[in-house]
Amino acid sequence: MQEAIFGKYIKDLRTANNLKQREVEKLCGVSNSYLSQLESGQRGIPSPDILKKLAPALKISYEELLVAAGYLPSEALPGQPPNAIPIDENTMVTFPVYGRIAVGNPIKAIEEIEEYVSMDTRFFNMDGYTKDDFFFLRINGDSMEPTIGNNDLVLIRRQPTVDNNEIAAVLYNFEDATVKRIMVAEDKIILSSDNKAYQPIIYNASECRIIGKVMKKIGDVK
């Protein structure tokens, strides 16, 4: 699992610098409890904002952490340190984070902006789109695990359709929202969970509207 591998990578960096978790917290403001869960693989991959805070405390470049986290490509061979890739601040774009959206049973869609998160536009394809076509949703629930975890952020690209088996944010009855894997069959839309403990939900196509496609997940940043 990528989270476990990255967590060990962070732990190895910390111990190589003879730092305790609480010392890292004092250096960069990333909480001791967050770091503990991150190192044990219980958290998703951190956001670029969190990585930017961790980098100087762990005495590694921000670029190397981005590569190790999978945000930027690397030509490094397995087992070798990741290659540093220069970051251009001009490619950073800030997107709004909207309130929690359920991945279990649909809940009322929340329209208020909670915060803003910056992403490098090289992390995903923006061809033909503007920054206004993207936004984040914070996930509430475990029905999409292990693909998407509770409290993860997902980057949504606004679009009215997706291909079958892709993950999308869906508005049901024009006021309830959820994130599910989509399957369209004639006049029905099947919303499936990746967590096998949850059964698929079937709606009439006329009752649903696809808000947008899930483009990328970043781990719990709280």
How would you briefly describe this protein structure?
With 222 residues, the protein is an alpha+beta fold. The protein has helices at residues 2-16, 21-28, 32-39, 48-58, 62-69; strands spanning 92-102, 107-108, 113-120, 134-140, 153-158, 167-172, 176-185, 188-192, 201-204, 208-218. Strand 6 (167-172) and strand 7 form a beta hairpin.
How would you summarize the topology of this molecule?
Layout: H1 2-16, H2 21-28, H3 32-39, H4 48-58, H5 62-69, E1 92-102, E2 107-108, E3 113-120, E4 134-140, E5 153-158, E6 167-172, E7 176-185, E8 188-192, E9 201-204, E10 208-218
Parallel strand pairs: 1-4
Antiparallel strand pairs: 1-3, 2-7, 4-5, 5-10, 6-7, 6-10, 7-8, 8-9
Helix pairs in contact: 2-3
